[in-house]
Each structure stands twice: as C-alpha cells, then as structure tokens.
Amino acid sequence: MKKKVAVVMGGYSSEYRISIKSGKIVCDHLNKDLYNVYPIYILNDKWVYVAANATEYVIDKSDFSIDINNQKIVFDVVFNAIHGHPGEDGVLIAYFELLGIPHTSDASYKMGLTFNKRDCLSVLDAYGIAHAKSYYLNKGAIVNTREIVAKVGLPCFVKANRAGSSYGISKVYKEKDLLSAIEHSYKEDDEIIIEEYLDEVEVSVGIITHNGKVKVLPITEIVSENDYFDFEAKYLGKSQEITPARLTKQQEKQVREIAEKVYRTLGLKGISRAEYIFKNGIPHFIEINTVPGLTAESILPQQAKKAGISLENLFGSMVENAFLKFKNKTV
Please, where in the chain does CATH 3.30.1490.20 lie? Predict the structure, then answer.
C-alpha cells in the first residue's frame, strides 16, 4: 500500500514564497508509485490541502487530517519544506511529535537550536568550532555603536538572529549606518547578531543521512556578483555556485571534517546545509540550515546531483529515514 505523504509548505515568515517553491519541487519528484503525495499549505489564514483540481480541503488541526467526500485521511509521514517559522524553528515539528506523526526534520528542540544563530554558536563554541566574532542585541536595548565596532570591526554584517534567505541582513561599512541596519533587522526578528566580515573563500556544505548513513555532499563555492551572498545572489542568479568548490585537498579535508563534526555535535539526523568562510586558512562556521532550499536554484539539490543522487532518490530517502527515526524513537 502506498504511503500517504503530506508535504507541508508556506509558513508565517518572509520565506513563505520560497518554501512553496521548494514544496512544489518535492511534490513533483516524490515517486508516485510509492507515495500518495498531498501538498499542504500552512499559511497565516489557513491550513489546507490543495488538490490537483485546485479544490481546497481544510486541515483538522486536532489530528492533522483531512476529509474528502466523507472519507477521513490521515498521513503516514510529513515532509517538512517550510523555511522559517513555524517549520524550521521546531514549532510545527513539536506539534507533529505530540501527534506521533513521523516527519523528515530533526527533533523539535534541535530545530529550535539550529534556527537560533546565537544559541547555536554558543553550543558549538564549547566544542572548539571557529566562528566570526559576534555582538548581540535585543530589541529595546541601548545601542552603543562604538562598542560594536570595537568588538567586530568594519565592515560587518547585521543579521536577524532567527531568519533565513538573507532576509533582515545588511553589510555595514560605516559606524553611522549601524542604527539603520539594526532597525532593518528588527523587522524580521527582535534579536540581532552582528558579525565581523570574513573575506576569504565562502563554501556551502550539505550533509544528509542517506540510506541510514551520514553523507557529506560535494562542497559548493559561493562567488556572489553582489557585495555578499544576499537574496538576489541566492535566488535571482546573481552568484556563481561552483560545485565542487575550488579548494586545495587540505582545505577540502578541513571543511568536510569540521562540517561533519558540527552535524554530529548537534546530533542531527536529517538534511542540512551549513555555510563556512575561511579566515587565515581555517573554515569558520557561519550558520546551519535544517530546511535548506529545494528549488531548482538551490544549492543542496545541485550538490546531491554531483553526488549521483537524483531528487527522487533524495526525497524518497528522506521519507524513509523519517520512518526509521520514528521506529527507533530518535525524534
């Protein structure tokens, strides 16, 4: 019997449009001989299954089910394609855990940890993972621009602490521009992280649990046509994404080892993509994404292709891994 897969997409953050694109790619590539696929839109104003004829069926939130022609349908597994809140920060995952529904993501508390840049850095710091110097602010706090510059230097990056796809981020060259950059970030989150600028090679490393084993995918080098790897560079073709990255054997060995150490240190068992920038020859951790983009423009699908893993194989492996985790009670 085919497994019923609910592919959740959308969400409540600025990333919802990107999430819908990712979700549609997943729906298109899951093997229809093995799975009955249900695109589920989780939006601020509604939770609905949208059928092929565009008919909408409201989700019963008490058990995450739908009713079609008086037939109740419950799902065997949830494929999480929601970037940002509530899919990537663990909130929605906690709901599925309470209902006992297998899902493709990591445990809710690990999702919350990895989505919070400041908390994630604090954990990894204890394990000796190198990262950029950083300065933290909460909304309403007094801003001392001189103190910020003394800590992280100029130029620097001002980021929303809990946001993705480069929303709420600015590169600041002058102290006088810090306040406006901070206000820009506060539009996305009430917590801010300000980091030093690292100007060596930037790479993205995808890691998945595939066929029961942790696999580091081919590394991608990021060469932005813009001032940094912003939204345009990520999604509108304003960057070169070179896979495999143009690294020396020593650089590649370093970044692969550190990326796998981060993945295992955080206890991840799903799919992830992390960014690193070299400084003085050492890869510095920037952030990790546990619901990476799955669109045609996204990095991880490019890496999987280089590794000989088709999207059908990748997404199917994620679904089967969800059942394995649930069976072993690891999430």
Answer: 134-196
CATH number listed for the domain at residues 134-196:
3.30.1490.20
Structure token pair of residue 259: 């990326």
The residue ranges of the chain whose pLDDT is under 70 are 164-166, 224-239, 296, 330-331
Candidates 3.60.20.10, 3.30.470.20, 3.30.70.1350, 3.40.50.620; correct CATH number of 113-129+199-328? Answer: 3.30.470.20
What does CATH list as the number for 3-105? 3.40.50.20
Burial 115-138 (b: 16+ CB within 10 A, else e): bbbeebbeebeeeebebbebbebe
Please answer whether residues 41 and 10 qualify as being in contact, where contact means their C-beta atoms are separated by less than 8 angstroms: yes
pLDDT digits (tens, 9 = 90+) for 51-73: 999 999 999 999 999 999 999 99
Residue whose tokens read 């085919």: 2
Coil, helix or strand for 86?
coil
DSSP one-letter code for 219: P
